[in-house]
Amino acid sequence: MSLNEKITIADIAAHAQVSKSTVSRVLNETTPVAADKREAVLAAMAALNYKPNVFAQSLASGQSLSIGVLTQNFGSPVYDVIMRGVLLGLEETPYSPLFADGRWQPETEQKAIETFLDRRVDGLILIGGYCPEEVLVETARRTPLIIVGREVPGLHNHCLNVDNEQGAYAITRYLIDLGHQDIAHITGILAHEDAAQRLQGYRQALLDVGIEPHPDLVIEGNFRRQSGMMATEMLLLRGRPFSAIFCANDQMAFGARLALYRRGIRVPDDVSLVGFDDQPDSAFMTPPLTTIRQPAEEMGRMAAMAVLQLIKGGSPDLPLFQTELVIRESVSRHH
Amino acid sequence: MSLNEKITIADIAAHAQVSKSTVSRVLNETTPVAADKREAVLAAMAALNYKPNVFAQSLASGQSLSIGVLTQNFGSPVYDVIMRGVLLGLEETPYSPLFADGRWQPETEQKAIETFLDRRVDGLILIGGYCPEEVLVETARRTPLIIVGREVPGLHNHCLNVDNEQGAYAITRYLIDLGHQDIAHITGILAHEDAAQRLQGYRQALLDVGIEPHPDLVIEGNFRRQSGMMATEMLLLRGRPFSAIFCANDQMAFGARLALYRRGIRVPDDVSLVGFDDQPDSAFMTPPLTTIRQPAEEMGRMAAMAVLQLIKGGSPDLPLFQTELVIRESVSRHH
DNA sequence: GCTATTTCTGAAACCGATTTCAGAAAATGT
DNA sequence: ACATTTTCTGAAATCGGTTTCAGAAATAGC
Predict the structure, then answer these.
(1) pLDDT tens across B217-242, in order?
(2) Residue of B55, B103, B273, B282 to mutate, interface with A, max A Cβ within 10 Å
(3) CATH fold for domain B164-293
């Protein structure tokens, strides 16, 4: 567009016959400016194709107009959707997101947070993660902070969560209502609140109809496909019969699906299979996976709004998001 | 850590009994500094837990130490891996990536590029996209630019690609060698070079063994799961028999898989199915998908290195990346 | 031992904005 | 019509660094 990339506020001031201060004022609308000068400035900016230097702005104003967003894994189905939500939520605001990947390693996470702070982000959104709670509490003291998918004691009003227990309860109940009694559960990493809550929902659903959950039917996975596969094999090995498997996320359901396929066990004819998350490709499993949808994009959006509110000094209220049962074809009535 | 976040270079200077200039010099290693002063400065920085203000640095130096990375879709299996590669490639450098999502919309893309330029990124990595070629050429003139997954005329030495034709040729040939003669192909969006190249590889492989590609067996998809499903249904409707389907990417293969499942057509017993990309979940398709792997992470890494070289004034040479046939279980010998 | 280099160093200008402050101009009150 | 308030405006300081420039100190040359 222009070869000379060096148009500064001084050029505009000169061109419009006003002072730099005035230019700054029409730029930021901090103080009213007489209509004619205002027009002149606007015209000059348009004529010279002026773009303010973000660094000068940030240095002078102390604001960076950026929000740090820390995910745990680029390519994780659910987190990616949350990130997209954040992106969307920030779209019409002056703020831009800065993304980083914590790779589920506390050290990496903390380094990323430090980097964000060094870059003077105005706010921080953390999605999941293992970062120690003290660090989070400390960080929240220094910076507007929203945490998605974790529940940190003492930071309740900073945490945005989905009702995991309710979701797990609902899908377990759905299986029960279709006649299943022996329902296996492959959990996530139980150190994560969400995994623990899903396990709790599963147990409660069983208990509520008078079924005592059997320890042989519960096995801990790590949320990854591979672990779903191995857990299923382990389950089969243990020998305690079951007619359905509830995986704590869809990725593990994919793993379970493969293990069953390898053994020639049909889904849903021989074993019913359900997951949690409703990640984008779950509708394309063979058979399409019945699962629990979490409003991930909506949560990302909300996280963005919330962090902006925190920046403005408000204190957003963060609802517990509700899940939805998505019925597809991986479950059949128990016979 | 510290309540007083305002430690500046002046504080360090005072504490170490030197001038600001000297502090700056030990910080940037631009000019040698006497050992004793150097130590004093380092000690002061450590004692006061000094963090340079990135904005001041960028403003003064004219460098932002950031690289803009434009993907087309957070959550796209292949692009996400490329992004991770970029992240890794930048890891040990002073540069940080800024990510944006073009959503496959030229306007969004261009806006994102403008935003990057406003933020004075030192370099730009574009992954895929529809942005008009003139814009790209212009952008490359202004800023170090690397484009992954597109071949833009006039910007050959800025484009990082995989040998799509070779990959498509190899996997088609693999099918042929197993006795398949009637091989359907669901293409990507043919306006994309990569889709066109994959189609070309498919055709060439057939022609090389004396098979004339039949137009009824080629159908254009759009790289998405849904389109793989619809294309397969269309293929079935057309009535021309085939024993294998080659999808231009794995996502469409998932769609095709579902369409076949719905019709009760077995994979690979009745129809063999192959894809392209080897996205992370392809190993967990039922049956696991035979496909072509592209070294996506490696490409992201290389893109990062290359853009850094461009920034330094070098001109990196960008190899055409080679693909690899990944044999799994979705193909059987034709009988 | 004295000049010619080389190596370090600090003062001051600069990067491109924002913001304070005080004064000028305009609007208001009576 | 004159004092008082309210609105606008520009000069100058500031944000926190980097970089130029010229001089001081140290080293080398002969």
Answers:
(1) 999 999 999 999 999 999 999 999 99
(2) B55
(3) Rossmann fold (3.40.50)
